[in-house]
Amino acid sequence: MRLRCAVLDDFQNIATTVADWSPVQERVEVVSFTEHFATENELAFALENFDMVVTLRERVPFRASLLDQLPRLKLLIASGMRNSVIDYVAAERNGVIVCGTASTSTPPVELTWALLLSLARGIVTENDALRANGPWQSTVGADLHGRRLGLLGLGKIGSRVAQVGLAFGMEVVAWSQNLTKERAEEVGVQLAASKEDLLATSDFVSVHLVLSDRTRGLLGVPELALLKSTAYLVNTSRAALVDQDALLAVLQEGRIAGAGVDVFDVEPLPAAHPMRTAPRLLATPHLGYVSQSNYRTYYGQAVEDIQAFLAGAPVRRLG
């Protein structure tokens, strides 16, 4: 009897074609789920007869309450080598081996600039108007050259976003709780005097921090109030870094020029969620790591993880 492997949240229905699964197909039946399971009970019911699960990034929490309902599960594969929504203690208790895959940060860097540029030049507004035979030019683009780009976080992604900003001729400043002047200078940017100074003086602000107890809710009502009325905010990192209700308020009241958001408190967004209709908001459905190269890596290495598990020598173990 073949083992069964579930691939979760395969929205584009490409998991079984973007990589070669033939090395395991004789021993493993692969089932792709193209719809997101809204509740843990629905997910537990769907997965009860599977031995393996492949999950993308941190879209699906594997808490103890879920893992305890899956006695048949023996291998859980997550894309990337870090996952904060898997209960590793519960996985070990249930005899579940957790493995990861490689991942590149290039796609979220590129998406950050896609959002920022689209906001600055009114791309969506102008495209919609052109297609609807609306006004010929209705926006005046915000220049990048000579403007200040403020980066909250200067790690792997933030540093690459900074390099692009510098190439555009922007003045780039950065801040995080542990960022030093020396590290900022290595990247070629300035260290902001404080988070508050960065927010108050930047024309564009982009968030690139790891979510933790220290960074959760980093941008709330008082912080967003510091932004210029002409400023743009971009968040392709984690939804919980920015107070979503506070962001909705400043957008609805026109207190900032606009925001580009790729991450949300609830995903997928419910049909009636206010983020779907908020003014001055350019929103994408968590596309940060969704690219051809990353998907080839995710699913290709998932196959490798399965092969290693079947051979009794798991690789890229997490936990």
Along the chain, the helix and strand elements come as EEHEHEHEHHEHEHEHEHEHEEH
Q: How confident overall, as mean pLDDT?
A: 97
Seen as an oligomer or otherwise, the chain set is single chain
Looking at the structure, the CATH topology of the largest domain is Rossmann fold
> Measured on Cα atoms, how large is the radius of gyration?
22 Å
User: How helix-rich are the residues, as a percent range?
Assistant: 25-40%
What is the CATH architecture annotation of the largest domain? 3-Layer(aba) Sandwich
Describe the structure.
The protein is α/β, with parallel strands linked by helices. It has 2 domains: 3-103 and 291-310, NAD(P)-binding Rossmann-like Domain (Rossmann fold); 106-283, NAD(P)-binding Rossmann-like Domain (Rossmann fold). 32% of the residues lie in helices and 15% in strands. It has a 7-stranded parallel beta sheet with strand order 8-7-6-9-10-11-12, with helices on both faces. It has a 5-stranded parallel beta sheet with strand order 2-1-3-4-5. It is globular, with a radius of gyration of 22 Å. The two termini are 30 Å apart.
